Amino acid sequence: MVRKETRTYQEELEKEINFVRESEGKKPIVWKEKREEKEIKISRTDPESGYYVKGEREKQFAYSFHTTCDRHGFILEKIVTPGNIHDSQVLIPLMEKLRQKYLPEVVVMDAGYKTPAIAHYLWGNQMEAVLPYTRPRGKEGFFTKRDFMYDAWLNAFHCPNNHLLSYVRLNREGYYLYKSNSTICEGCALRTECTDSRVYEKSLTRHLWEADLERSEELRHTER
């Protein structure tokens, strides 16, 4: 059993969550230090390595060599971690290390780095976050989140049948929660493609830093 590592952006996220809560007239959350634990496998012969899992086939004790490269493929900076550390957890410390020597303007990454925290960090530090297309996720046969249009003016989502999912609250993890009107959903012709909720209610979440991911999506559609 080992203690879970604190996310590098956690302090900034907590401040922004409380800023939103106070602007809504709610009491700020008093954050207590979490001492969450998780169970991991440890090698008795090489305890500094980590148990790397990639699907069912690839499982082994290993190390990960995280690098930043220039456009010619030359390695500019690196961090070595146990193999059980996800790439996305290392990007911010890796970029901080790189920025001590260089001033990167554009950062190109694969889908493993496509998180609101990473996009927020890069755009917030004057770096363009270039991220790839990822397929919509969700239950087969149901609408995906991309079928719902976010309306920044109303701070609500429009469903495929043009009804609103209204804002409810911001949770402790930094996600805004939106819910539909169950009275409307119960008689909706598209309900079976939308939700299997017993109370006829559709819920969606939107991260506090989702707008930074959307900037990367917009960038992906430009000629440049």
Blueprint (SSEs and pairs):
Layout: E1 2-3, H1 10-23, E2 37-38, E3 50-54, E4 58-69, E5 75-82, H2 87-99, E6 106-108, H3 116-124, E7 128-130, E8 149-151, E9 156-158, E10 164-170, E11 175-180, H4 182-186, H5 191-194, E12 203-207, H6 210-220
Parallel strand pairs: 6-7
Antiparallel strand pairs: 1-2, 3-4, 4-5, 8-9, 9-10, 10-11, 11-12
Helix pairs in contact: 3-6
Strand order of the largest sheet: 8-9-10-11-12
Basic shape:
globular
State the major sheet: 5 strands, antiparallel
Contiguous runs where pLDDT drops below 50 for at least 5 residues: none
Radius of gyration: 21 Å
Whole-Å distance between the termini? Answer: 48 Å
Helical proportion?
25-40%
Q: How much of the residues is beta strand, in percent? A: 25-35%
How would you describe what is shown here?
The chain has 224 residues and is of the alpha+beta class. The protein is 25% helix and 26% strand. It contains 6 helices and 12 strands. It has a 5-stranded antiparallel sheet with strand order 8-9-10-11-12. The protein has a 3-stranded antiparallel sheet with strand order 3-4-5, covered by helices on one side. Strands 1-2 form a two-stranded antiparallel ribbon. A hairpin with a 4-residue loop joins β10 (164-170) and β11 (175-180). The mean pLDDT is 94.
Q: Keywords for this structure?
A:
25% helix; alpha+beta; 12 strands; five-stranded antiparallel sheet; 224 residues; three-stranded antiparallel sheet
Would you kindly provide a brief summary of this structure?
This protein has helices at residues 10-23, 87-99, 116-124, 182-186, 191-194, 210-220; strands at residues 2-3, 37-38, 50-54, 58-69, 75-82, 106-108, 128-130, 149-151, 156-158, 164-170, 175-180, 203-207. It has 224 residues and is α+β, with helices and mostly antiparallel strands. It is built from 6 helices and 12 strands.
